TrEMBL record, chain A:
<keyword id="KW-0670">Pyruvate</keyword>
<dbReference type="GO" id="GO:0016491">
    <property type="term" value="F:oxidoreductase activity"/>
</dbReference>
<dbReference type="InterPro" id="IPR009014">
    <property type="entry name" value="Transketo_C/PFOR_II"/>
</dbReference>
<feature type="domain" description="Transketolase-like pyrimidine-binding">
    <location>
        <begin position="12"/>
        <end position="187"/>
    </location>
</feature>
<dbReference type="Pfam" id="PF02780">
    <property type="entry name" value="Transketolase_C"/>
</dbReference>
<dbReference type="InterPro" id="IPR005475">
    <property type="entry name" value="Transketolase-like_Pyr-bd"/>
</dbReference>
<dbReference type="Pfam" id="PF02779">
    <property type="entry name" value="Transket_pyr"/>
</dbReference>
<protein>
    <submittedName>
        <fullName>Pyruvate dehydrogenase E1 component beta subunit</fullName>
    </submittedName>
</protein>
<keyword id="KW-0786">Thiamine pyrophosphate</keyword>
Automatic annotation (TrEMBL), chain B:
<dbReference type="GO" id="GO:0004739">
    <property type="term" value="F:pyruvate dehydrogenase (acetyl-transferring) activity"/>
</dbReference>
<dbReference type="Pfam" id="PF00676">
    <property type="entry name" value="E1_dh"/>
</dbReference>
<keyword id="KW-0560">Oxidoreductase</keyword>
<dbReference type="InterPro" id="IPR050771">
    <property type="entry name" value="Alpha-ketoacid_DH_E1_comp"/>
</dbReference>
<dbReference type="InterPro" id="IPR029061">
    <property type="entry name" value="THDP-binding"/>
</dbReference>
<dbReference type="GO" id="GO:0009083">
    <property type="term" value="P:branched-chain amino acid catabolic process"/>
</dbReference>
<dbReference type="InterPro" id="IPR017596">
    <property type="entry name" value="PdhA/BkdA"/>
</dbReference>
<feature type="domain" description="Dehydrogenase E1 component">
    <location>
        <begin position="36"/>
        <end position="320"/>
    </location>
</feature>
<keyword id="KW-0670">Pyruvate</keyword>
Amino acid sequence: METATQTLQKQLTLIQAITDALDVMLSENEDILVLGQDVGQNGGVFRATEGLYEKYGEDRIIDTPLAESGIIGTSIGMAVNGLRPVAEIQFFGFIYPAFNQIMTHASRIRSRTLGRFTVPMVIRTPYGAGVRAPEIHSDSMEALFTHMPGIKVVVPSNPYDAKGLLIASIEDPDPVLFLEPMKIYRAGRKEVPEGKYTVPLGKGNVLKDGEDVSLFTWGAMVPLAMKAAEQIEKEQGICCDVIDLRTLYPLDRDLIRESVEKTGRVVILHEAHQTGGVSGDIISLINDTETAFLSLKAPIEKVTGFDVPVPMFSLEDHYLPKGDGIKQKIEHVYNY
Amino acid sequence: MDVTFPIKQIVNGDGDLVDASYKDKLTKDFVTKVYQKMLFARMFDRKCVNLQRQGRIGTYVPFEGQEAAQVGSAMALSDDDWMFPTYRDHGATLTFGHSMRNVLMYWNGRYEGVLPPKGKNIFPPAVPIASQLLHATGAAWAEKKKGTDRVAMAYFGDGATSEGDFHEGLNFASVFQAPVIFFNQNNGFAISVPTARQMHSKTIAQKALAYDMDGVRIDGNDFFAVYFTALDAVEKARNGDGPTLIEAVTWRYGAHTTSDDPSKYRDQTENDVRRETSDPVTRIERFMKASGMWDEALDELEKKASEEIEAAVGEMEKAAPAELNHLFDYVFETSPWPIREQKDHYLKSRGVNA
């Protein structure tokens, strides 16, 4: 359940909510530390750790050498030895040098040691396209990690969830990959409670209730999904059930099932490449959940990025899903 | 390069004390204890090779020839310190207090195999090469942050020095002055590839220079050089004076693993020469005999060690079959629904009650 110990609200952007979550947890637990490139004096290249270095000092807000495997590998050693590292990888596209450490160690040390050694750590990283960033800065490879046993994958889409999900991730006893949609880091301020609260991992959220078509999505695609759903309702009276999945492993099966049972028509939207994307797991989940599968009135449709490397920014608008494409798929499943 | 890294030696292959400054430290009691541990390590290793040949354990990674490096470095640690071994370092882990039965279980494909006795900080053997240098650095760094005087020792071979994680591990340890000892066993070969193909550098020890770290090159078959060098590095780390890279030059007599045939890539008659001139166990025996420390009672050691090893093999072999729970229940603290359901479904299909 979502819990709030404070009712005072403040207006924060998504990235400010992340800073706030780190601040809340750093002040509560001395074992928590933040490490990564430029997270210290510079406050992070996106300012996610702004002010924390001044408040908590260089022993807890640690600028590391420029080495992703080193950041994750030493974090594993610290986590195994009782600390709670929150490691930042500056961009998701730079996580690959650390892949070995995550795949062969962080995600399987609990299994390998039957629970003797564990890795309670969070890897935070900005992801996704649409901000005219240089090459390799715009990747969306979440499916590499949902396929990996032993790590949870979390993606917030608004300031409230960002803070609550990050706090829940830091408190989780196992490794969590926390993907931050950089396109909507500053998409607007929303009310965020002061102090500590959590949004549970593994639970999605119904953003807009509808009877006609289920629209499953996450991260930076959420605002796009909401806009398309609002437009198509106004234009054609098609009413979408828009669901922000928030956690990609484990998926919120109950929420997906309930929505599909209600609508019988599904569109899945993600900016990651199509083949091997998380949409495949959602379709598989619906297939394996008899009441959902038997409710289907149309083949499930997907709107995704292409199976091409995320392009340089002159072409990224062509790569990314667009509102008209989403509306076409909604219309298609609705009229099937 | 101007700086050289001569090989440090205290007792040579003939059993002669070549560094007289250590004379008083080599007491009969101490040397006898060392001999026991070295002999034990060798016998354990030979037993495991036999067990593999008999099909009683799986593929095994032998370390015969590297006993001095492993036993000497492990003896330099204190009980509360951390050890980050590779899959070839059971000589070190057993010396540091690992369970013999569990080490055997590991080679029998059992998860219990990585579990040291409770409270013993021995990490599971690293399989991806050099990845453990970062864990050791992180664990040591955590000790420094907690304000303890515990240290971590990372084990790795010559091939590991080509990996990025070797450099990242040394660099992080250097930048944050983590109390970690990087203990390299240079046995000359990474499976079949000789050190000349790993590096153009003349030594591994010299790589420490790049990190402004102490680098020491030692005769890895000389227990005393290993032990006293490691002890100095451990004390230095404990006192807050940072990490050390130790290159222990050694030789594995056997194959990379029991699945490997070393005669394909090197002349195995080299072993005969080395057993005569630089063997780590024989040289202690020679030293003891030359210095009047040899006791007829030591002839009984082999029998006693053999009994202990046989007892552990017996325990390993009579262990109940691996539990299916181990397959499913330790991926996360609380299993999410996909794992819960996969487990239930599988157990039902096997007619097992959950």
